[in-house]
Amino acid sequence: MALRWVALHLFPTTALFTLFCRFILTGCYDGLGRVWKGSGWCTHILEGHSGAISSVSIINSKGDGSATVATASKDRTLRLWKFDAEDSSDHPARIRAFKILHGHNVPVQSVVAKTSGDMVCSGSWDCTINLWQTDDSNTDGDVVSIKKRKVNNKAKESQSEIEAVSTPVGHTQCVSCVVWPQNETVYSTSWDRFVRRWDVETGKDLADILCGKVLNCIDVGGEGLALIAAGGSDPILRIWDPRKPGTSAPVFQFSSHSSWISACKWHNTSSFHLLSSSYDGKLMLWDLRTAWPLAIMDKHKEKVLCADWWKGDSVVSGGVDDRFCISSDISI
After folding, report:
1. Residue 148: what pLDDT?
2. Are 318 and 33 within 8 A, CB to CB?
């Protein structure tokens, strides 16, 4: 495998998302979101948060170049942004959010978009999950205010403040990660050591798995989106099959890391492969058919905080060392 490029942030990269191959979205401790091309060029800077960005998600990216994304922050808000992903200006465009989502009273730890793009889900240190509408034409939540201001005789972009439409309750500690693999179902992990599956329409807790360890990350994948992978406060990446009722024992456990696991991501097209990152500074590629990692990537000098797949055979990652890396030519 090869290290394609490294971008240096002034602060640690805390979150990234690469659902669409046209760009990479990152969040940072400096409170800024950034949009990157695969060449390593930053095209947009998302300004407005007053605290570190803890999570990011791409809501949609249309064929005409327009994209909508979400960010979650330690400042207790989520923000929605729109930009032209095809913009090729010489300097990064600085943009403001068009919606601010209020509802959590402590830092927001995770955000994920519904596959249809009309809602986002957030998890917070206040132990709750919030569901939000992103579609202006169908919003059940209250629009608190819509403002237009002039600064130096220039009109600033309107920002509307939106409240959550639903708040499922069940976790008793920080909700560390949420994923939305299917329209009707959200999964969450928490420091209370539970994995929970939620019905989006009713807000009901449909099922839960007790791990025994504080959990930091979750992803749902495998054949038919049937397997749940999660990692947390030990070096073990655990995978459960909820189709086997009556037991909370994982069906797979991978234990080659030497410190806490910070992220796990199933491959977009392979039901056997997934990626993990860890505070040991390494990323590992796993195959369900073998107990040992297929590849170990050690491009970071300190803790790796986030990781995702990029264009099938590449991996993007960010860490405490202020480095944002793309490793390419990974064999699947």
Report:
1. 42
2. no
225: helix, strand or coil: helix
Report how far residue 203's alpha carbon sits from residue 185's, in angstroms, rounded to the nearest whole number.
Answer: 10
Alpha-carbon distance values, 78 to 51, 99, 209 (Å): 11, 8, 28
Phi and psi angles of residue 225, each rounded to the nearest 5 degrees, phi first: 50, 45
* Whole-number pLDDT of residue 107: 97
In this prediction, residue 140 carries a pLDDT of 40
CA distance 27 to 57: 10
pLDDT of residue 86: 85
Integer Cα distance of 142 and 148 in angstroms: 18
In this structure, the number of other CB atoms found within 10 A of the CB of residue 142 comes to 10
Residue 26 to residue 6: CA distance in whole angstroms: 13
Q: Report, as ranges of residue numbers, the positions in the chain whose pLDDT lies below 50.
A: 5, 137-157
